[in-house]
Fold:
Amino acid sequence: MNVPDFIARAARLHPDRAAVECGAETRTVTEIDRRSRRLANALIGLGLLKGDRVVVLHENSARCIECDFASARAGLVRVSLNPRTTPGEARYILEQVQPRAIVFGAGFDWLPPLLDDLGQQTLRIGAQPGALALDPRACDYEALLEHAADTAPSVAIDDEDLHSIFFTSGSSGKPKGVMLSHRSIVQAAANVLIEFGPQQPGEQILLLQPLSHGSAYFVLPCFLRGCCIRLMPQFDAEAVIEAMRSPALQTVKMVPTMLQRLLAVPQVAAHHYPGLRQIIYGGSHIAPAVLERAIETFGGRLAQHYGQSEAPSTITVLPREDHGRDNIGQTILRSAGRAWTSVDVRIAGPDGITLSAGVQGEVVVRAPHVMSGYWQRPELTAQVLREGWLHTSDHGVLDERGYLHLLGRTDDMIISGGYNIAPLEVEDALLRHPMIREAAVVGRADEEWGHVVVAFVCVQPGTLTAAQIGDHCRGLLGYRKPRQVFLVDELPRNANGKIDKAALKAAAAARG
Structure:
């Protein structure tokens, strides 16, 4: 089965159930089904052909889901831009994919001049009145739907047909276009259903990340099960806490930074969350101190998933039963969990040979939802996909029970005086200090040591000096302690909210 098959099945099973809520905007399953069919037919009628790329640039809304489903039904390839992307990043992606159409919302006043400058023959579709005001040449999204046929497009879809191109965050260079097939998207949806549900029709899930990012892989399984997807255009910690107090809400999906901000809301631990079954977090490393406080606050409702763009969202899982209060202080909470049911995970050395438990190496994955390759980069694809295995460039170790402990990106590993130092281990030690809010560690080239450890640290105002942080690390880290500590107000982040290690490496080199 492909993505359109699942959409049609959901429409038969749950026609009248609420499918999406975003502010005052609500759509039923039938409405999403019909509107996505109409949009698919409208795009075909405008001359788009199977395999053409459609870019979507929009804050979270029901229209994001309609565009996703419409592209899949028309055999088009959806390319979503993060609404926080910069014009420079958008230019690079648009140059790479050469889209035939772009659907955009309000607030992106830089987009029409960028499209004019690129000179591409791209059909522009304004999905909100504010978008139409930005670009008088844009077609009206609602008018296209109104005049299009309400029938399933007669486009044959194969499991290996391209469904979407997801551009990586580009934290270590230019973003790479990850090609995901219908097979990949369907299998990722099955993985989510197996581990996270939803369990029953009518449940509600609150997705807090942009639908251009990790939240997207939770849409299809929720739609298929008749679950209502609640969206917020912007993250607001107090609004999230209020939503979590509703008996109707069972699941919240977020990144660790959001979880940390929830814990900073006054009285968060005093509230009751009667319907809440799970808080799913992932997408970046979580500090042990933050996770332990979250468990104290929310109990055993937490669950972690680890994945990457090349194997969407579902490589390993640390389920709710591993988040009990009796595990606070245990190494299990510093892991990313164990392999998903459909996934094989091993640790490989530089020669590709499997390493024993307890030995560090590269995380290597085999699974049916792995990407088809990188867009227009066959050489890089051949380097990463070898003999049926995805080489993730993540550095880690498997313990005797099969729990994966991630140590950072292979490119971020610091070799100092002949020793391998994992930045995550140093960051975790830094974050044990209660006055340290955030920390990021990189390596800086050094004539004597090869590289030295450099830490960028955000502290509670007026509480710590760099020397005091060094003293804190000395007993915890020994030779792995930072040689330099820089106090900063904020850590740089890319459009996907991840810490920009490339920017920090440049800053460390400049200050060295």
Summary: The chain has 16 helices and 27 strands. The CA atoms of residues 10 and 401 lie 38 Å apart. The mean pLDDT is 94. The longest strand covers residues 436-446.
